[in-house]
Amino acid sequence: MAPRANLILLGPPGVGKGTQAELVVQRLAVPHISTGDMLREARAAGTELGQLAGQYMDAGELVPDEVIVRVALERLQADDCAEGFLLDGFPRTLPQAEALEQALGQIGQEVTAAIDLEADREEIVARLSERRVCRDCQRIFSLRRGEIKEGDRCPECGGELYQRRDDQPEVIRERLRVYEELTAPLIAFYRDRGKLLTIRSDGPPDEVHKLVWASIEEALGSR
Ligand code: ADP
Ligand code: ZN
Questions:
Q1: Does 35 contact ligand 1 (Cβ within 6 A)?
Q2: Residue 39: count of CB within 10 angstroms of its CB
Q3: 131-134 and 140-142: which strand pairing?
């Protein structure tokens, strides 16, 4: 069987994981799996999971590990993950990373590479507070980069653009604090396993994508 591409995107909220993930899956036959998107969909559908997750999300806190681990591992068993996956927003804590490692180990797999996107904190706060998301296609646009103007509709599908509740300044600060405390330790976790790739993510998306793609090709080539 051909080796799978089991990829993870790491990095703080607002660093561009979602944008980069979308660009990567245009070139690689694996699904983009965003646990944040899955939870937002569960909320929109009003499921039990969505109701539970909502309280944590609006406060900028993490959903409990046992909940998100169950959701993520179940998703990874779907048929579309036969060639691998690109995870965005999972794992986000050490227990989540350990659960993923164990689940992959049980099927004779491991993480191929963990791509850590880095940008300065001021850049991140500015990006988050000026980003808008399409209610229909979930694409992300930036007021700051001039991709849209206040009051515009989605340039891709004409859907309504909105600001996520957790993109308000106080919640952004809390998300960054949670990131430093609980998620940043994953950098060492994957570095220790020889899986870490670090990429500066402060340029325009297509420039960052070139760097991301080059490092993915290298990681896949050396499997
Ligand atoms: P961000 O822009 O902060 O990366 P996401 O869209 O990935 O946002 O996630 C939004 C929210 O969903 C998080 O703040 C958290 O409450 C919840 N969430 C998403 N993924 C996870 C996870 N792996 N563990 C715990 N909570 C999660
Ligand atoms: Zn749209």
A1: yes
A2: 23
A3: antiparallel
Of 15, 10, 184, whose CA–CA distance to 111 is shortest? 10
Nearest CA-CA partner of 164 in 138, 137, 132, 141? 132
- Closest ligand to C-alpha of residue 167 is 1
> Is 171 near ligand 1, meaning CB less than 6 Å away?
no
Question: pTM for the complete prediction?
Answer: 0.90
The end-to-end CA distance of the chain, in Å, is: 13
**CB 4 within 8 Å of CB 83:** yes
Euclidean distance between CA atoms 191 and 34, whole angstroms = 22
Q: Which atom of ligand 1 is nearest to the CA of 12?
A: 4
Domain annotation for the chain: domains and CATH numbers: 5-31+78-221 (3.40.50.300)
Helix axes 65-76, 94-106, angle to 10 degrees: 30
Residues 38-70 pLDDT 10s: 999 999 999 999 999 999 999 999 999 999 999
